[in-house]
Amino acid sequence: MLSYSLKEALQYLKTGNKDVTLAYCSEWLSYAPGDVHCLRLLAKLFIQSNQPNHAIPILQTLLQISPSWDIFLSLANCYAKLELYKEAEDNYYKVLQYNPDQPQALLNIGLLLAKSEQFETSVQYLEKFLTTDKDANAYFWLGNNYIALGNLSAAFTAFASAIACDPKHSEAYHNLGILYNRQNEPLKALENFNTALTLNPENQTALHMVNALSQKHSVQAPSTYIKELFDQYAEYYDLHMNKKLNYQVPFALRDAIARVLPKNYETGFTLDLGCGTGLCGIYFRDLSYKLIGIDLSEKMIAKARLLNAYDELITCDMETALRQKQHYYNIIIAGDVFVYCGALESIFQLTQNALQANGLFAFTCEVLEDNHQQATYLLQTSGRYCHATSYIHHLSYQFNFSIVVEQGILLREQEGLRVEGKLFILQRTIF
Q1: Domain count of the fold of the chain
Q2: What secondary structure does DSSP assign to 80-121, as a single string?
Q3: Residue 117 — pLDDT band, cuts 50, 70, 90?
C-alpha cells in the first residue's frame, strides 16, 4: 500500500517538501512505471529543484507516452538552461507545431535566433510575440536585430518601447545613446548614456561615452568597452568596413612597409596588435615567417581564425602581448588601434623592447591639430582618440625610434565625410 496519494505528494511539493514528493514518486513508479501524472510530478520536482539534466529523460519518456505542447515546452526550457541551444530551439519549434501562438515559445525562439545572429528570422518571431504580449526584453532584442539589419528607425522605436515597458531597462537607454551618437545628436546621446550609467554604475562603455561626450580627460578606453564593442561588431565587421566605410588602412600599411623593407628581406616575426577579423593580417602573410594576431574580442579572434592567415591568435590586451617576448619581432603593426588609446607612452616603450634591432613599428592614428590647446591627445565625441603629430614625434624621440614614413591617409568614410589620419612607420634605433 502506498504511503501517500498523488494529491498529497503534489501538496508536499507546493509547500517545499521535495524529499517527501520524491519518495512518493519513486514508490509509485515502482508499481506503475508509465503513470503520466506521476512522471509529470517528478519532472516538475526536478525543474523546480534546478536539475534540468534529471528532468530531461523523464520529459522524453512522457513524450513517448503522451506527447503534448507543454511537455515540449518544458523540455526546451531544460535544454536552454543547460545551454544546449540547438536542442532547445528544435523543441520550441515543436511547441509551435501544436500551438502556433504559444507566447513563451515565440519569445524564446526569437531570443535564441537573435543570439545566433539570425536577425531577420528573429524579428519575425519577436514581432509575432509582441502582437499579444508586451515585454521589455523582447523589444530590446528586436532593437538589436534592427541595428544589425541597418534599420535604425525601427531600432529607435523598439528601444523606446522597451523603456515604456520597463523604465529601468539600462541596456535600452545605452543602445539609444549609441544610436543618437551615430545620428550626430550628442546631447540626446549623453542624456541616454547618463541614464544607463545611473541605472548600472558598472557599465564601463556608458562611462566611456559620457566622458567622451562631456569632453572629460581619459587616458584610454576601458578594455570592457573595447571587448563588448567588437564582440557585437564581429559578425558584420568586414562588410561594414569594406563596403560602408571604404576602409583603406590594411592596404596602406602594407604598401608603406613594402617601400621601406630591403629587396632581400627575409621573412620574420610579425605581431598584429588589435588584429580584429584579420583585415591587416592577410596583407602581411607573405612577409611573415610567423604571424601572430592579438585582440581583446574573442569573437573577432574567431573570425580571424577562419582566414588561416595567422600562425597564432591570442585573446589578450596589447601590453600583455608586448611584454611576453623581448627583442623578438621584425614587424609590429597597429592598424586603427590607437583610436582606443589616449596615452601611448607605455605602448611605445613596450614595442621598442619587443622589436629586434632595426625592427619596424607601423601604425595609424586620427590626427589632432597641433594648435588644439597644446594637447597631446583628445577623446572625441565618437569615443575615439586622436593624437597630435607633435606627440608622436616626441614619443619617437623619447623611445629611440626613427621615423622612416609619415604620410597622411584616408582612414575611412563615415556619414559621407572623409576621416583623415596619418600613417607612421618607425624603426627601432640601436646605439
Answers
A1: 2
A2: HHTT-HHHHHHHHHHHHHH-TT-HHHHHHHHHHHHHTT-HHH
A3: confident
